[in-house]
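Propose amino acids for all 416 sites.
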């Protein structure tokens, strides 16, 4: 049996185990990466260890530390109450509000990852406070961030438009952005109402939660430490948007400021950090790196590409990029690798609309990015305010991400 087949089998095993046991799938994935990569595949240990996502790890730690500090000192609770009051206590409106905010923020520059890092903790805190299902809030804020990911001003949009220009498909910046935004809005709102979001419109938030300064629920009105926390977070937001500050490194600096100003206790925050979730996501990424080096992804691609036809190519490439994007970086790996195939694929199949194929790749690759194996899904899980629900949320978002590969294929087949 080839190393490529074994690597695919290892990934399948990790997914199954994550759904049926309490074992941290990140720990399992690292062990499987060592077995498949080193013991069977003969890879150097340093090569396997090099698959550890250092940038993702630091981003998760920095952002979750900052917002855990804000949670510990009561700032997020107070902001959640203000968000409730802005929505007049209607639970159904709150996830929609966060979708719009995330889409707008991602579109003006930071992109989907930075936006999710900034918005997910607040959104999930609000959901936990007023009783909105965490899964519904996660798909709304996650898809909202992804809806703005292909803006001409966002990092992923710049990458995609640059690749399309190199393959002689310039001038599609606005269409690419709008198609992706509409696809995510359709999927997010469809899922929101399908899984019970409509029931939330019939419910009001608890009376105590409608008052953002109710002592019984918030510990009193906003104090100096809370305003300083808000100001630090707002400064980070502006820095990411205007000065292109790395959100992870900026979050570490912001956390240091809060601790030095005695606005929060870093020891308490470090104890409450979701380390299990961070290990989970980082470990799976190590296994994915082995999968890529063992050409397991190429094996999956080759098998699926055998069935492409002129009539079904848009749906199939959306399905293909979606399946690969569940486990790999959409902007860093999938789209730069797949988009250059568009002209040749269109010519080989006799397609007259290469842009339809490219759009299917863009949409299919991004629809799955609320999976917990992606940064956005991981941030939503790491921000879950209710202890013990991270595992259930992980499984729900994993099922959602995998199903979006199929949904993306169907949507792109019908539209294009």
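Proposal:
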């Amino acid at each position: 049996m080839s190393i490529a087949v074994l690597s695919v089998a290892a990934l399948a095993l990790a997914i199954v185990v994550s759904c049926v046991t309490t074992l941290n799938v990140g720990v399992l994935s690292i062990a499987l990466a060592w077995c498949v990569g080193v013991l069977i595949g003969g890879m150097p240990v340093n090569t396997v260890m090099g698959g550890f996502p250092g940038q993702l790890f630091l981003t998760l730690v920095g952002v979750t530390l900052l917002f855990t500090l804000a949670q510990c000192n009561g700032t997020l609770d107070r902001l959640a109450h203000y968000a409730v009051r802005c929505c007049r206590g209607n639970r159904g409106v709150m996830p929609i509000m966060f979708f719009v905010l995330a889409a707008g923020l991602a579109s003006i520059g930071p992109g989907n990852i930075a936006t999710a890092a900034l918005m997910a903790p607040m959104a999930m805190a609000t959901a936990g406070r007023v009783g909105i299902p965490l899964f519904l809030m996660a798909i709304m804020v996650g898809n909202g961030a992804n809806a703005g990911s292909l803006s001409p001003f966002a990092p992923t949009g710049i990458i995609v438009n640059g690749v399309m220009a190199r393959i002689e498909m310039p001038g599609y910046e606005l269409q690419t952005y709008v198609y992706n935004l509409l696809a995510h809005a359709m999927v997010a709102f469809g899922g929101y109402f399908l899984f019970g979001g409509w029931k939330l419109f019939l419910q009001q938030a608890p009376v105590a939660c409608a008052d953002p300064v109710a002592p019984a629920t918030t510990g009193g009105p906003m104090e100096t430490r809370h305003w300083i926390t808000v100001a630090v977070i707002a400064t980070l937001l502006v820095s990411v948007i205007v000065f292109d500050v790395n959100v992870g490194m900026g979050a570490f600096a912001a956390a240091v400021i809060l601790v030095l100003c005695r606005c929060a206790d870093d020891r308490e925050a470090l104890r409450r950090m979701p380390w299990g979730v961070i290990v989970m996501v980082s470990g799976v990424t190590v296994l994915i790196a082995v999968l890529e080096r063992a050409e397991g992804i190429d094996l999956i691609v080759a098998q699926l590409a055998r069935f492409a036809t002129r009539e079904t190519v848009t749906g199939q490439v959306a399905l293909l990029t979606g399946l690969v994007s569940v486990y790999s970086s959409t902007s860093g790996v999938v789209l730069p690798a797949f988009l250059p195939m568009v002209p040749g694929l269109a010519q080989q199949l006799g397609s007259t609309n290469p842009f339809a194929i490219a759009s299917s790749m863009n949409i299919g690759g991004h629809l799955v990015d609320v999976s917990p194996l992606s940064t956005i899904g991981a941030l939503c899980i790491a921000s879950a305010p209710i202890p013990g629900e991270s595992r259930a949320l992980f499984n729900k978002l994993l099922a959602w991400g995998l199903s979006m590969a199929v949904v993306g294929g169907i949507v792109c087949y019908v539209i294009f």
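Residues 53-286+295-415 form one domain. The chain has one domain: 53-286+295-415.
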